[in-house]
Amino acid sequence: xxxxxITPEQLRSQRWYKxxxxxxxxxxxxxxxxxxxxDEFHDKPAIAxxxxxxxxxxxxxxxxxxxxxxxxxxxQAGGFPVELPAMSLSEPFVKPSTMLYRNMLAMEAEELLxxxxxxxxxxxxxxxxxxxxxxxxxxxxxxPAIYLPAGPMLRGNxxxxxxxxxxxxxxxxxxxxxxxxxxEEWYEAEDGIARSPGHCMTMGxxxxxxxxxxxxxxxxxxxxxxxxxxxxHARMSASCGKRIVDMVWEDxxxxxLITVKSLENAITTVMALGGSTNAAIHxxxxxxxxxxxxxxxxxxxxxRITPVLADIQPSxxxxxxxxxxxxxxxxxxxxxxxxxHTDALTVNGKTxxxxxxxxxxxxxxxxxxxxxxxxxxxxxxxxxxxxxxDGAVIKHTAADPKFHQHTGPAVVFESHPDLLKRIDDPDLKxxxxxxxxxxxxxxxxxxxxxxxxxxxxxxxxxxxxxxDIVRISDARMSGTSYGTCVLHVAPESFIGGNLAxxxxxxxxxxDIFGRSLNMEVSEKELADRRAEWKPPKPHYLxxxxxxxxxxxxxxxxxCDFDFLQSTxxxxxxxxxx
Length: 577
Ligand code: FES
Description:
Number of strands: 14
Strand order of the largest sheet: 7-8-12-11-10-9-13-14
Number of helices: 21
Bound molecules: FE2/S2 (inorganic) cluster
Radius of gyration: 24 Å
Helix content: 25-40%
Low-confidence stretches: none
Distance between the termini: 39 Å
Number of domains: 3
Oligomer: single chain
Mean pLDDT: 95
Largest sheet: 8 strands, mixed
């Protein structure tokens, strides 16, 4: 039995329901209008289930049914479940980029919780931006909350080969452009690559961030690795519903769980997984919401001491389904436990160390031993230099090692449309040693920092057998992508960062060992170019896009809105009509 620390009278929801007043009369009578009796909502923790299901979010299709499992758990534990739908942010369908709307979902979820009679929340997400958005909301609202990850989809299937989300799409696309596969084969791959509910099953942003959520202590143990289609996922959903009710009585809030230690655990986990570079943005944003003071340099510091143990695409060869059968995240974390703060508290009231105690690995090929890692260092390097004074990142484990130290002449594209127009031009002056630079794809310039960072390899190089080349932009990259792609250059070019000043032929040096990215252009020449530089026209003059452009921060700050990165209190809503 959970140890109760708060009483029914102290429940936030009871402000709406208790007493003799016109407003409590209204709240009770309107709940009864929905068929509930007073004993179902009186003195019971009201649990919001923030559901990011929609008809156009393929990764969350099973949430339509899982919601019933969560409610079952809430009822069993003596709570009152309240489903609250929220923006679903389907990664492939939302344009120009889901990143433009991550903060909007974070604001929506926070205000849904604030404005309703809610005591605790189960947060249902998984498709890329939904996990960070819901965790950001939970951090700011700070009522008891538990995260329920959607779980990865099953392995893709093509002619008896496994296919990975994103990763194999890019690969097939390159082969189609190079003329090495037929259109018929292309369509056949389309039929088999995504064949169940669940988020991308490679180590993309979704698998990275749901695993980070578990390491942060915001999920029940083992939740992040369960495939969406597995019946264990339904049982995990019911367990979340049960547990959140006790968390309300225990008054266990995100601020008790998301700390410097748990954030460091999340970063270490991302490194050991060879996770998505997007984690560097999202975890910074979550930390800044709570004023935890963790910066980009922490990612590099922990990357240097954390081996990559997960052999999962795009850095490796297996998929999340294999990872689950091999012991999942608990198995992996147990292998790196001395790199973790095992005393960090988690939603089940136990420490991370207790949750991973005794967790086994059943397949050393999928989850490598410490003696046989995929890479001795973590999968993310932070670069600094005159091209990125506030930082840039590269997933060097997904890059051809011959480019880890490389100097080459820039081939510059002023924007993504410019790149699409000219990249396959047979007259493009490009060689395998060139460094492709794309501008104006950052948080403001994209707009929304789209995942364009895996810039396409020029067709003439593809046809000559080239499959990697150095690429630089202020964009992000899908976690399912691969190649020598420098990303998140800050400050971005659209607002006058030095990336805006690069010209064709400038020599650029990438040094992953030295953590640097520089263009060999003198200070005087850069100053002259800056004097000539004119800012591009703004994308938005009104609406959400305008507000976004005014308040979005750069990648090294997590791309949150400046007015959300504060711990200043927000008053509880006034209840009288
Ligand atoms: Fe939803 Fe990849 S499309 S996680």
